[in-house]
Design goal:
alpha/beta; Rossmann fold; about 35% helix; disordered N terminus
Length: about 350
C-alpha cells in the first residue's frame, strides 16, 4: 500500500483481480461496498493480479476471491485492525490461515450462494452422463450415421437409478432437493450425518463402501481432509457397478486421477469431471479425448446470476458486520477443520 493510501485510511482491501471484481460486483454493489468503508478497489499489481500490499494498518475488512493469494501470517501482522475476511467463493482453506481465529478475525463465505449452481450442474451431469448426451453430440458433429446412432443401446432414466452422494454438504443437500423431483433412490455417506437427519432429508444413510457397491451414479460432495484425500482409488473403483457413472464437482484431490482414468478408459465406468489436479487441463490431456468422459473447466458454480449473487452476498455480510449483526455465512474455527 502506498503512503497516500494509508493516509486515506482505507479500511476495506479487495484482493481480487480487476476481471473478477467486474464479474462479481455490480455497479450497485460496488457503491454499497464503498459506503461500508474507504475501499481500495481494485487492489491489483502491475499485471492485474491481486496485490497483498493493499492490506495496511487501517484495514478492517479483507475481501477475497478465487484468484486471491494466500494470506500469509506475516502479511496479517501489518493489519492489527483486521476483524473480517469476507470470501466471495466457497472454499477458504487455501487462502485463509487458521491463525486468523487467534487474532479475533471473523471469516465468512458465500458457499450457500454457490451450492444451488453446483447442485444444478450436478443434476445436469447425471442426466447428460446417463443419456450419453455429449458423446452423441460429438458423433453427430462428425457425421456418424443417424440410424446407427439411434440403434445403439439407449441411455438410462435417472428416476430408475440408485444415486450415491458422498457428503451431505450444502451442495450435497441441494442435490438431494433436486433429486426429490425425479423419484430416484438416494444413498448418502457422511460421518457427520445422523440417522435422524438422513430420515428428514429422505435419503438412506450408508457406509462409503456400501454406497460404492449399490450406486449406479456416484457423485462427490466432500471436503478435502486427510481422511478424504484420494478416497476413491483403484480398490474403490473396483467396488463400483459395471457401467456406473462417477461425477466430481467438488475437489480433484478426492480422486486418484490415474486410477479413475484407467477405469474410464477401459469402458467399465463413465465420468463427468469438473475439477482436475492440473488446471488448466493441458490440451494433450487424455481426459479431453475419452468418449465416455464429459469434462468441463471448473465451472460448475459459474452462472451469470450466481456471480452477481456472490458480490451481493459479500456486501450484505460486510454491512451486517458493520452493524454488529450475526453473519449468515460465518465459518467458525470448529467448522474450518472439516470444510473444503
Amino acid at each position: 500500500m502506498t503512503p497516500a493510501a494509508v493516509e486515506r485510511g482505507e479500511r476495506v482491501a479487495v484482493l481480487m483481480s480487476t476481471g473478477l471484481i467486474e464479474r462479481i460486483f455490480s455497479a450497485r454493489d460496488r457503491s454499497r461496498l464503498r459506503a461500508a468503508g474507504a475501499v481500495r478497489l481494485p487492489a491489483v499489481d502491475a499485471i492485474g493480479l491481486p496485490d497483498l500490499t493493499a492490506i495496511g494498518p487501517e484495514t478492517e475488512v479483507v475481501v477475497t476471491g478465487w484468484d486471491s493469494p494466500a494470506l500469509a501470517v506475516e502479511i496479517l501482522d501489518h493489519a492489527p485492525k483486521l476483524r473480517l475476511i469476507a470470501h466471495t467463493g466457497g472454499s477458504i482453506r487455501a487462502i485463509v490461515p487458521a491463525e486468523v481465529y487467534d487474532r479475533g478475525v471473523a471469516v465468512t463465505t458465500v458457499s450457500a450462494v454457490l451450492a444451488d449452481a453446483v447442485a444444478e450442474f450436478t443434476a445436469m451431469a447425471m442426466i447428460a452422463g446417463l443419456r450419453r448426451a455429449t458423446l452423441l453430440h460429438e458423433r453427430m458433429r462428425r457425421g456418424d450415421d443417424w440410424e446407427s446412432l439411434a440403434a445403439e443401446a439407449p441411455g438410462r432414466l435417472l428416476r430408475a437409478q440408485t444415486v450415491g452422494l458422498v457428503g451431505a454438504s450444502r451442495v450435497g443437500r441441494a442435490v438431494i432437493g433436486l433429486l426429490a423431483g425425479f423419484g430416484c433412490r438416494v444413498l448418502v455417506s457422511d460421518p457427520f450425518l445422523t440417522p435422524d437427519d438422513a430420515s428428514q432429508l429422505g435419503v438412506e444413510l450408508v457406509t462409503f463402501h456400501n454406497l460404492l457397491t449399490l450406486s449406479d451414479v456416484v457423485s462427490l460432495h466432500a471436503p478435502v481432509l486427510p481422511e478424504t484425500r484420494r478416497m476413491i482409488g483403484a480398490a474403490e473403483l473396483a467396488r463400483m457397478r459395471d457401467g456406473a457413472l462417477l461425477i466430481n464437482t467438488a475437489r480433484a484431490a478426492l480422486l486418484d486421477a490415474s486410477a479413475v482414468l484407467n477405469a474410464v478408459r477401459s469402458g467399465r465406468l463413465s465420468a463427468v469431471l469438473d475439477v482436475f489436479d492440473q488446471e488448466p487441463l493441458p490440451p494433450d490431456s487424455p481426459w479431453r479425448h475419452l468418449e465416455n468422459a464429459m469434462v468441463t473447466p471448473h465451472i460448475a458454480a459459474l452462472t451469470v446470476e450466481t456471480l452477481r449473487a456472490q458480490g451481493e452476498a459479500v456486501v450484505d455480510e460486510i454491512e451486517r458486520f458493520r452493524a454488529g449483526e450475526s453473519l449468515v455465512g460465518e465459518i467458525s474455527r470448529e467448522m474450518y477443520d472439516r470444510i473444503a
